[in-house]
Design goal:
The protein is mostly helical and 292 residues long. It is built from eleven helices and three strands. The chain has two domains: 139 residues, no CATH class; 147 residues, no CATH class. Its EC number is 3.4.22.-. Keywords: Cell membrane, Hydrolase, Membrane, Protease, Transmembrane, Transmembrane helix. One of its GO terms (cellular component) is plasma membrane. This is Cyanoexosortase A.
Length: 292
């Protein structure tokens, strides 16, 4: 009987790893769990990012479905099942916004990749795993990222001064004649910059680009995130100087902060659209030159 059970387990894993239906079902379930948790967390910025990245990952895998090698072993399948089991168990009790919450997408990708292709086959999914990592995991790196609050404060104070306000800078404090605002790390813009960096990575993964664009696109993403947040800090300083507490709370904590995130994403989207338009025009110009 023991020999029969030992023979059954490899057959079970063999059937699972070679069945695209099971892999699709498990992947869809993991995606649904994460999106449900994100929805419960009530963070519009995270919801949009998660849907966009999951859709991109699904699209990338679907485009290469006929070229993927589904050759997993018993041990790799066990590890994959273990990762998925941990996600299922923890998802019922994890605090929304916790560290494990941010790791769910990449852990889901690792578990599903091990089920499908084993340890050796994980390299097939490196682009998808990187994309899943950028859904939430970069937020875990924020405490170790250099604090750019002084730079943000200096930039916002310069904008205020250039616009005609009597702005003075003291470290991370921007002072106007009737009020002072502190630029602490949470308002430095690093979160928006990380968010746009993920979108830049997604753009580079989804569309063909040359080496110059691969360098230029992330730089533009970081710059847009920093500049848009700098104008947001400027607005907050003006509202503090006007003693407009209600407007300050709106633009600082509530939907107003989300508006600036949307502006940053739209600006980066316009840049990517312009880049694609230029790339599409170059082959046509080359064809015309070749014809002539």
């Amino acid at each position: 009987m023991l020999m029969a059970m030992n023979a059954t387990y490899p057959v079970l894993f063999q059937r699972l790893k070679t069945s695209p239906f099971w892999l699709l079902t498990i992947g869809s379930g993991l995606m649904a769990i994460h999106l449900t948790l994100v929805w419960r967390a009530d963070n519009p910025n995270t919801i949009g990012t998660s849907i966009l990245f999951w859709s991109a990952v699904a699209s990338l895998v679907w485009q290469r479905r006929d070229d993927l090698k589904l050759e997993s072993g018993v041990f790799a399948s066990l590890v994959g099942f273990l990762l998925i089991a941990v996600i299922l168990i923890r998802s019922a009790s994890i605090p929304l916004g916790g560290n494990f919450f941010d790791l769910i997408p990449v852990l889901s990708g690792l578990g599903l990749g091990l089920l499908a292709s084993g340890f050796r086959g994980l390299k097939q999914y490196w682009t998808e795993l990187v994309a899943l990592f950028f859904i939430g995991a970069p937020r875990l790196l924020e405490p170790w990222i250099v604090d750019i609050s002084p730079i943000t404060a200096k930039f916002s104070a310069f904008i205020l001064w250039y616009s005609g306000f009597e702005a003075k800078l003291n470290g991370v404090y921007i002072s106007l004649p009737t009020g002072t605002v502190e630029v602490y790390p949470g308002c430095s813009g690093i979160e928006t910059m990380i968010h746009l960096s993920g979108l830049a990575l997604l753009f580079l993964l989804m569309f063909p680009t040359n080496w110059i664009q691969k360098i230029f696109v992330p730089i533009v993403a970081l710059s847009i995130g920093f500049l848009v947040n700098g104008f947001r800090v400027m607005l907050l300083a003006i509202l503090v100087a006007q003693n407009n507490t209600e407007a300050f709370d709106y633009w600082h904590h509530r939907d107003g902060s989300f508006v600036f995130s949307i502006i940053a994403v739209l600006l980066f989207g316009l840049f990517c659209w312009f880049l694609l338009q230029q790339s599409n025009q170059e082959p046509q110009e080359n064809k015309i030159e070749g014809y002539e």
